[in-house]
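Quick illustration, no need to memorize.
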Amino acid sequence: MTTDAAAPQLPEPIARFVTAINDGDTEAFVASFTEDGFVDDWGRRLDGHEGVRSWAETDAIGMGAQMTILSAEATGQGVSTRFSWRSRRFNGESTGIFTVEGDRISSFTIPPH
């Protein structure tokens, strides 16, 4: 769980995901996903560790992203978050839906607005 009292409490795999983005650590970011995990960014789905790595390079870490979780709510399927994002590619707020399996993320979806 996160240690910042002002930040929403997050499952450890999601906290590692956010830390990896903010630290610019692609290896830790990829390792936060299951082998068959995926990122679905507005319907563009990138599967497995290679797909996740590709998204990290083109949309997140490679663009100097900084992510702040504004709110988090457990759902029947996982954790729905609202987050703030700053990067050379996109700036603003979005919804992010995480599915966690054990100690890793199996999916991260940013639905279209």
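The helical segments are 12-23, 26-31, 48-59.
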